[in-house]
Every structure is written in structure tokens, then in C-alpha cells.
Design brief:
Largest sheet: 7 strands, parallel
Keywords: Amino-acid biosynthesis, Cytoplasm, Diaminopimelate biosynthesis, Lysine biosynthesis, NAD, NADP, Oxidoreductase
Main location: cytoplasm
Radius of gyration: 20 Å
EC number: 1.17.1.8
Oligomer: single chain
Number of helices: 11
Subunit structure: Homotetramer.
Number of domains: 2
Number of strands: 12
CATH architecture of the largest domain: 3-Layer(aba) Sandwich
CATH superfamily of the largest domain: NAD(P)-binding Rossmann-like Domain
Subcellular location: Cytoplasm
Strand content: 15-25%
Shape: elongated
């Protein structure tokens, strides 16, 4: 490939979409070749730069994802589960790397990505940051080292616009803790406590979600036993870390065989 990879951003008008656009435009390793929004959105048909309040950049926002994907080597997608499933089929048709940062996907929806992964590279992660993915690895190791005398609680905080809970990152951390303990998260997950719930069950992995203000993302993994506590923590202060990670994943996937990957693959962890 003589040119740098062409990138399309879906959900262009969103908070994450705009951050991704700025990250790609600032990069000398990729080109922005398309921006997608839902049909009827005010940005559709406008030059993307003008829509974002700046000068024209020559990329027109479209509501036709297949047309946009056909010009791209990668699609970066932080939208909704339903939209992501539709985009996965179209990205596979275009043989474009599909980087998925969408959270709130059910196990059944994740399974529906498999056909697309037979034809194209999919990189999906609940969190694209290097720090969080290191935290995932640490969580797994600590959980493996400690027995069930240590209760495990994943505590996460996000801005008041976030619509899913627990966060995708919290679930990644819960999965890591469960894997470290040699159990299945679905069998030990404890979330949504309210009212008279009874005592905590030994061996459960708990989740607590905080929503407020403009919190970008904070995650603690608490290992609590009688007389001592261990806390592993990651705090995100700038949404740009997720955009940089997503772009790194899009570039990493360019020479990979079709299949499903995650950020641990991208980061060599």
C-alpha cells in the first residue's frame, strides 16, 4: 500500500466520534476518508469540518455506510450495539478492519459478529487504552494469587451521559478476575444491589457503578479480606487515550488475517 490507510468514523457527531476524527486528522499514519451519521441527522450532506465548527476538509458526512466503507481500509466504530452489528456486515463486505469500541453489547450480539470476522479483521475491546489493558492483566494475576477469602469488587465511574452499566471496561475487569480464579463470570457476578439483599456470597465478583458530571472513566478493582485491602486503579482524564488506542488498533490490523482480536493482541500483551 503506497498511501496511508483510509479511515472512516461512524457516529461522527458524538463525543467520541469527534475525538476520533481529530485524532485521525492529526495523525501522519492514516487518512480520514469518510464520516457516517444516521439518516436524517443534521450533519448528513455537510462538509465534516464545517459541521464541527471549523473549516472545510473535503470529507462529506454520509448516511450510506457501505459507500463510505468501500473507500476505506479501516472503520472505527463507537456507536450502539445494533448499529455496530449492521456496520460489521458492511465492513466485512469492504474487507476493512473494523475497530469496535461500542459497549453494552450482549453475549448474543457479540456472537453475531462471528460471520463478519470470517471475512475481515475485527478488533473489539471494552476499553482501548494501554493502561486499562495492563490493569486487566494485573487483575487476572492478583485474582489467581488470592483465594476466596478476598472479596472482589469492580467499582467504576463515568459521566452522566453513559447509558450502560456496568461499563464495558468493568466487565473486562470482571472477566479477568473470573479467569484468574478459574470460574465463569456469569456464575459469580453480583451487580444491581438494592434493598435487603442479604450477606455477600463468598466467591462472588461484585460491580458498583457511579454516574455523574463529566467523569471520563475511573475503574478500581478492590480485593478485600479481613484486615487488609488491595486496590488496583486506573483513572482516565482525557477521552483522547481511547481514540489513540482505536487508531493504533486500526493500523495494527492492516496486515492481519481475518478474525476476532482485542487490545491485548494489538498491544502484544
Amino acid at each position: 500500500m503506497t498511501e496511508t490507510p483510509g479511515i472512516v468514523i461512524t457516529g461522527a457527531s458524538g463525543r467520541m466520534g469527534q475525538m476520533l476524527i481529530k485524532t485521525v486528522l492529526d495523525s501522519d499514519k492514516a487518512r480520514l476518508v469518510g464520516a457516517v451519521e444516521r439518516a436524517g441527522h443534521a450533519w448528513v450532506g455537510q462538509d465534516l469540518g464545517l459541521a464541527m465548527g471549523g473549516s472545510a476538509i473535503g470529507v462529506v458526512v454520509t448516511d450510506d455506510p457501505l459507500e463510505a466503507f468501500s473507500k476505506a481500509q479501516a472503520v472505527i466504530d463507537f456507536t450502539s450495539p445494533e448499529a455496530t452489528l449492521a456496520f460489521s456486515k458492511l465492513a466485512a463486505q469492504a474487507r476493512a478492519v473494523h475497530v469496535i469500541g461500542t459497549t453494552g453489547m450482549s453475549e448474543a450480539q457479540i456472537a453475531q459478529l462471528e460471520p463478519a470476522a470470517r471475512h475481515a479483521v475485527l478488533v473489539r475491546a471494552g476499553n482501548m487504552s494501554l493502561g486499562v489493558n495492563l490493569l486487566v492483566q494485573l487483575t487476572k494475576k492478583v485474582a489467581a494469587a488470592l483465594d476466596e477469602d478476598f472479596d472482589i469488587e469492580v467499582i467504576e465511574a463515568h459521566h452522566h451521559h453513559k447509558v450502560d452499566a456496568p461499563s464495558g471496561t468493568a466487565l473486562m475487569l470482571g472477566e479477568a478476575a473470573a479467569e484468574g480464579r478459574g470460574v465463569t463470570l456469569a456464575d459469580v457476578s453480583d451487580s444491581g444491589r438494592d434493598g435487603i439483599t442479604g450477606a455477600r456470597k463468598r466467591g462472588d465478583i461484585g460491580f458498583s457503578a457511579i454516574r455523574g458530571g463529566d467523569i471520563v472513566g475511573e475503574h478500581d478493582v478492590l480485593f478485600a479480606a479481613a484486615g487488609e485491602r488491595i486496590v488496583l486503579r486506573h483513572m482516565a482524564t482525557d477521552r483522547a487515550i481511547f481514540a489513540r488506542g482505536a487508531l493504533k488498533a486500526a493500523l495494527w490490523g492492516q496486515d492481519k488475517a481475518p478474525g476476532e482480536y482485542d487490545m491485548l493482541d494489538v498491544l502484544g500483551l
